[in-house]
Amino acid sequence: MTTPxxxxxxxxxxxxxxxxRPAHRGTLRYALSKAGGAxxxxxxxxxxxxxxxxxxxxxxxxxLAQGRNMTPEQLDLERHRLGLDKPLIDQFFDFVGKTLRFDxxxxxxxxxxxxxxxxxxxxxxxxxxxxxxxxxxxxxLWQGIRAGWRPGSRFDRFSTGVSxxxxxxxxxxxxxxxxxxxxxxIGPIPGIFPTRGIESVDAPDGFAYLLxxxxxxxxxxxxxxxxxxxxxxxxxxxxxLDEVSQDYVTTARAKGLRDDEVRRRHAVPNALLPTVTxxxxxxxxxxGGAVTxxxxxxxxxxxxxxxxxxxxxxxxxxxxxxxxxxxSVILMNTLADVVYHVIDPRVRSx
Amino acid sequence: xxxxxWTRRRLAFGRFWxxxxxxxPGVIGLAVLVVAVVLALVxxxxxxxxxxxxxxxxxxxxxxxxxxxxxGTDESGxxxxxxxxxxxxxxxxxxxxxALLSIGIGTVIGIAAGHFRGWLGAVLMRVTDWFLVLPSxxxxxxxxxxxxxxxxxIIMAIGVTSWPSTARLIRAQTLAVEARPYIERSxxxxxxxxxxxxxxxxxxxxxxxxxxxxxxVASAIVTESTLAFLGxxxxxxxxxxxxxxxxxxxxxxxxxxWYILIPGLCIVAVVMxxxxxxxxxxxxxxxxxxxxxx
Amino acid sequence: MKKLFARLAVLGVALLVAGQGQxxxxxxxxxxxxxxxxxxxxxxxxxNPFLAVRLVSSSIHRLMYGFLTVPDPKTLQPSPDxxxxxxxxxxxxxxxxxxxxxxxxxxxxxxxxxxxxxFNKVMTDDAAKTANGPAAENFESVTANGxxxxxxxxxxQASMLENPIPIMPKHVWEKxxxxxxxxxxxxxxxxxxxxIAVEHKKDQYVKLKxxxxxxxxxxxxxxxxxxxxDNPAASIVGLKKGEIDLIGRLAPPDFEALKGDPxxxxxxxxxxxxxxxxxxxxxxxxxxxxxxxxHPALKDPKVRQAxxxxxxxxxxxxxxxxxxxxxxxxxxxxxxxxxxxxxASGDTKITYDVAKANQILDDAGYKKGSDGVRxxxxxxKKLEFRFSIxxxxxxxxKLAEYLTGWFxxxxxxxxxxxxxxxxxxxxxxxxxxxxxxxxxxxxxPDPEEVLATHLCSRRPTPSGExxxxxxxxxxxxxxxxxxEQLKELDRPKRAEIIKKMQERLYTDAPVIAIYYPxxxxxxxxxxxxxITPIPEDNGILxxxxxxxxxxxxxxVAAPAAGSAESGSNTGLIAGxxxxxxxxxxxxxxxxxxxxxxxxxxx
Lengths: 350, 294, 602
Known about the structure:
The complex is a heterotrimer of chains A (350), B (294) and C (602).
Chain A: H1 8-17, H2 27-54, H3 60-65, H4 72-81, H5 88-100, H6 114-149, H7 154-168, H8 171-185, H9 206-244, H10 247-254, H11 259-281, H12 283-296, H13 302-311, H14 315-343, H15 345-349
Chain B: H1 3-21, H2 24-46, H3 80-115, H4 119-133, H5 136-147, H6 151-162, H7 164-178, H8 181-188, H9 193-229, H10 239-248, H11 257-285, H12 287-290
Helix pairs in contact in B: 2-3, 2-11, 3-4, 3-6, 3-7, 3-9, 4-7, 5-6, 6-9, 7-9, 9-10, 9-11, 10-11
Chain C: H1 2-27, E1 35-40, H2 55-64, E2 69-71, E3 78-80, E4 83-88, E5 94-99, H3 112-124, H4 129-132, E6 139-145, E7 148-153, H5 170-173, E8 195-201, E9 205-210, E10 223-228, H6 232-241, E11 246-247, H7 252-256, E12 264-270, E13 273-279, H8 301-309, H9 313-319, E14 325-327, H10 354-363, E15 384-390, H11 394-409, E16 413-419, H12 421-429, E17 436-442, H13 448-452, H14 476-487, H15 491-508, E18 511-524, E19 528-530, H16 548-552, E20 554-555, H17 562-601
Parallel strand pairs in C: 1-10, 1-11, 15-16, 15-17
Antiparallel strand pairs in C: 2-3, 4-5, 5-7, 6-7, 8-9, 9-10, 11-18, 12-18, 13-17, 13-18, 14-18, 19-20
């Protein structure tokens, strides 16, 4: 994957320690200030996107035309239609206004509004990323707790090792290998899983449909989960290690509580908080993984749309999907921040 | 530097090395790393770019491993072994340079954000946070698509999207260092911003930077291969472009497992090595993690 | 926690039971039907034929709608489709088509009104020009008169009978106000073709049902599905596994991978495409002013000839196309079109000969420097050319690597420049910022369009607007021949003129043809029992210029129980595996927990 494992930790600190934050601020005010920050971030995304995509070399109209024959009149018309004959500053305000009205322009390749294209594909991505995330988080947390409670044990070394290996594997490569082994079948292994898409063409109805989608989900979800679960494991493990050395754990043990109970009642709930925040913090990361996975398994989602936009390239579509992905990640993070604040007593009183 | 300082640092390094040696995975990682880097550096003594040329590739197409070509050949009869060897230079170069760029930006912004409190620090933190949440692969893809594919733009795209975590780490460290009394003393003696940041803060965060860089190289190598797979690559043989080649030329359906597995395993091995090394460094340098034992 | 695992286990069992219970039901819709599933590695860009430009979309639309004329399945010459018959006026400017008595799939009659509306829409609505605008550019007026369609053109137009615009039902489409944003996603779609589109899931598939009222008679199969794969390797696996029955436009390695499968027919025929190099031989705009930054040496026909001698076309066909292409000794019309194909022979023929290439350059005064690179005779500018190719095209990458190697042997340095498709078109078609560029064209049964791409008038305007040139060529001889063939309505005579035009391109070398890639496809013979290519003797199945193959295709009916077996087995296995995994995991956790608890109690 694409960000160092331990990148997670500073982010958690940021959420947790809240440098320079007045101690007695109320939850509502906190939420409002976070929302303000998110709005600022989103504004930065919009401004940044506008200028980045205006840096493109060449005539955008011609880029849009992709070499199709256009008369000078047609080009002028197109230029006018896109408002490219206006001064840059007017273009900027047009762009901002339209974006705020959820008008992300029309894809030249698909000849449809980018918002519609995104709407058509959002569900598939949410399903894939959501399922992948749930698997990765449950696997990561479970193994992280076990490994962190008994550091140095065989389980610890094994699970940490496996997760690190999977972490080092490029997502697309793992996906291709899984496709070749479990969809195509090699030797005695039958290729029982489908090679493409989210459902069969003649998908049945009712419960069998769910089963059909489930079959299609196995390989993409597995790929996505395999490369991202390591970070949850490692952070859970290290935050549990931190808790284990705390006084209250020793006290709890001294009280005669069973090891298992100390873990379940005291250590884990406390150690869970930074990890849960991390889940949201690193959502951008899952998005990156989804792009690659969707391209390999022909998953009809946003990642594939984005990949298509890059390949064509269709800059309106690229710009639209980029903004959507980024803004949703920012919103997720803000939500995580606020939720964290609400549920973590330490932060609240800090 | 006075000789006293030198001796102190040498001693510190000796202590550091002793602890590091105790980290078995880290030592293994370091060994793999050294081998990979040395191999990449000495490659021009034995082979040259012609191993990646299709005109001189005379072997059979997609030939299985044999004595002639121990790792088999690709679609143009080029030896996978030699391609992997030569390609390691591009992969490692992009990995290192992108990591250095990322660490460079991260360090400057991190120290500045930690050193200058007030609005400047706040703005820098805001920017860092903003970059931190950007989906880095997606952003790198967009950047590379806008800038066009070349070694430089790929390094840029990776470096520019991966620095925020370093900046965060360095800022936290800077805050900790500047809280120490001797900084106070130095300020009282008239030490300026430049003096304090370069003479006191930087040496103290340097070890952590080393660990951070190591981890950053690992992720840059993976990102490079992912970008290459998604169609953004410099026109040079790297492990990522080899994997892309195996995909483009249908190696999987042709049963040419060597073409798919070998470059991929190289990536996994080197990235693993960097990661193990980086984690070991971190746990040595960060006592909070030392007892963790991994 | 325990509860969670218990629930998981229950879920697993439920999945298993439900999976079994639903299987018979699941296969019901397909049972007894003849279904052909076609794979495509391109997604549909738009279901609106006025907008769609991708090959997959136009192939689907060809099955859904009728045209005035279609290529004859045997000869590829224009033959009646919705136009039953036609006449031309003396001056060749007025065409009268008699529209056939046929029905739209919603029961309305097909009239000349429909055709007139369609053409007028393309002529007057800018958005409607997107897909096939140039095809109606020369139309003066189009009117309907009963079942007669009258088209008046500005200039005589020999290609009138190859018109690529599908005839749309006026009564459905006249309601569309904003053509640019109309996605035509209404099903079943109203058409007059062999199939009716009934479903389109974006980026996934298009489902077409046979049109029982098709005027030629209903197709032999019941349903045609076009299924999209993002990953070409997966599509090959899909064909081998039987997820799809046919896939066209294969890359050579994917085609090779089908070898040895007893159920798969490897379809290898001459294709409709020519691949060539475009050389910046001194690009000019339509007012003859130089444009771009082409290397001056390329203005010299001798240099272009030397380059031609330095290309081993046989090797390229072997290595780049895996031997599945014909090296080009001709020009831009591929050998598939036997009428119009021209091939060099005797003295005019240029064969791979490095010595001769070096000789030509030596004689012309391009001296080799100490570094082995030649310089211009009148200066010290080195012969260093750029080679522009597209990003993301492995075949072009490979081609560039070979050319670089060969040109090095004649003292010319070639560096590869990769451009995305829009920039590529801009630099090689308008701004002329290139030296040598890859190019190619899928040629229609009538080669008029590909020939026109080398006309003076196609060069960009002085203001820098592109005209669609493929070479910046502007040659008096070529122009004259073009005008002659345009007016020549006698086919064999016209073919002779077209051959002369190709010879001119071959010897003057503004473009150098390198090979004609074969049409590579694969289909399952255990599913498809018969399919007729177009042209019938040695033609193309998917992506060809006619609806014929998918109209004539016949397939094995999905047996009521038989196919359900394979399908259900997969489902069953999956269900079992899923359930076992879930139950196993649950059980594992539960026992582990018990054990650890027990341990700690001691």
